[in-house]
Amino acid sequence: MRRLLWPLLALAALLLLNVAFTDGFLSIQxxxxxxxxxxxxxxxxxxxxxxxxxxxxxxxATGGIDLSVGSVVAIxxxxxxxxxxxxxxxxxxxxxxxxxxxALGAWNGFLVAGIGIQPIIATLILMVAGRGLxxxxxxGQIITVNSPAYKLIGGGYWLTLPFGILVVAAIWxxxxxxxxxxxxxxxxxxxxxxxxxxxxxxxxARRVTVMAYTACALCAGIAGLMIxxxxxxxxxxxxxxxxxxxxxxxxxxxxxxxxxxxxxxxxTVLGALIIQTLTTxxxxxxxxxxxxLLFKALVVTTVCLLQSPAFxxxxxxxxxxxxxxxxxxxxxxxxx
Amino acid sequence: xxxRFSALVALAVGALLTTSCGGGGGTTSAGTGGxxxxxxxxxxxxxxxxxxxxxxxxxxxxxxxxxxxxxxxSDAQQKQENQIKAIRSFIxxxxxxxxxxPVVESGWDTVLMEAKNAKIPxxxxxxxxxxxxxxxxxxxxxxxxxEEGKKAGQWLVQEYKDSKDPVNIVELQGTTGSAPANxxxxxxxxxxxxDPKFKIVASQTGDFTRAKGKEVxxxxxxxxxDIDVLYAHNDxxxxxxxxxxxxxxxVPGKDIKIxxxxxxxxxxxxxxxxxxxxxxxxxxxxxxxxxxxxxxVVKGEQVPARVVTEETTFTQEQAKQVLSSRQx
Lengths: 336, 328
Hints:
The complex is a heterodimer.
Chain A: H1 5-21, E1 29-31, E2 34-36, H2 38-61, H3 69-85, H4 90-115, H5 119-138, E3 142-144, H6 148-155, E4 157-158, E5 161-162, H7 163-181, H8 184-193, H9 195-200, H10 205-230, E6 233-235, H11 243-253, H12 265-285, H13 292-307, H14 309-316, H15 323-335
Chain B: H1 2-21, E1 40-45, H2 51-66, E2 70-75, H3 80-92, E3 97-100, H4 109-117, E4 122-125, E5 139-142, H5 145-159, E6 167-173, H6 179-192, E7 198-205, H7 210-223, E8 229-232, H8 235-247, E9 257-262, H9 265-272, E10 278-281, H10 287-299, E11 306-308, E12 313-315, H11 316-322
Helix pairs in contact in B: 2-10, 3-4, 5-6, 7-8, 9-11
GO cellular component, one term (chain B): cell envelope
Signal peptide (chain B): 1-22
GO molecular function, one term (chain B): carbohydrate binding
């Protein structure tokens, strides 16, 4: 739990900054039968990023990385909107889009685990080609759809809450159950920690890897549906552009190591919320667009430095906790 | 084994990429343009990144056919090196005139000098180059983004001419640093700056996309409760913002007046529906003007160094009339 302390503090600090600058930042009203306020916005616009980051966590835990999620986001939204604009039912459209995403994820997994291409290269192929595929589906245009049912996924409300965040909560719960209550999480960490040793221990490392990439693409696909549904249109060029970088950042802020192994789903969710809060902060306190990126970079650097035990020890003159012992404690917790 | 296979995959992907760039070259063997014959034009397009660009391509292709000009079309897929390759191949094919929309502003001197030495005139369309040597091209045909910003500002000044109250404006800028964003912002600010009652209370980039436009507008609505006018640098950001405004329980076009730039189909529809109040056109249909200029340049006539695309503005009533005839 102590690992999550610093991300939590960073999130709290960002929220406080907003409270200081914007009147009524924390106020939540009921408007048209649903909750309305800045905090709800952060959840609603953050939902796709949380989802993509959750998938990315699994891939990074196996020691890989998935650069293609942004393109998968675009493809999924494009295919769903194309189907709906051709009078297919929303259910068919969503099923087709997610089916394609599963296939794309399996393709990534095949390249990485089956053929043995380095993950960064293997997924780079789909990152570049996938953007083209999305443009092919939309014919280079923005497809606008008018479907209240489709609108629900990313822009609608259910039980006064944004529907998207409910979907995210459900997927988070399922993933947490599968990886923390069943042995799957341990298997993933084993593959990420040492694929050869885990194979010798009888784990089918290839299958685990393919599953991680497929789950990641599925998450990205659902996020793509949310993003396109929120604005009732599919934009093959811009939907999900650079979301892979935000997702990787969220995973890292959440305390998952890029070298694979140990991972934290809660940390990732916190990381994604920090990034989305940061974005909202920039809009509401009025950081000029020219300095937006610098502002983001400063905040992210600060958060990352605060998380580094070595840095904290230097600045606060405290000895870092003995690392090997801490790692051992973690391992015990995981098996329990 | 694994290594060899991955190399093979990489090779296959590479081959796919290169073959898809070459389309359009070498399809015509006739018409190398002797005196008085049909003119051959080499046109290198940026890519097909938006509906605007697709309409632009179609306009050039259609008007070339109508004007009896043989068109060699090449799509650069947003890459400068593809565009330079295309221009070199046009020079080798000895076309009569080269037209292109530069992907980026800089780095054109060498290849344009080659065209000049081959005595092939060059026309820039839609986007400019920052070369100091203006003899490298005959003319630049495209929109005047500053003028577009000014037109938006003039409508606003006219709309509020009887009002003494302060007018709170929020602005959704295009991609930070891009020419249309810089110029549309500057032109607008220049016109409204004359009257202190106009105040831009918040201004952020929406990256020219609907999703960002909606997200930024949501934040504006909460941080600045009193918004009278929204000025968006393109239709798409405006369309996203409309959803945010509706979500906040306000009526777009009435509670918050909306001005956008571009006049793409979805934007015109929203204008006709009363959700947008005023659109400044940024027309991609510069094909006919381009063909006229090409004919003049090939004949050796003098043309102005800067030609502005014929563009107009639309109010809600005008939008209802022209909506059915919009091509893009």
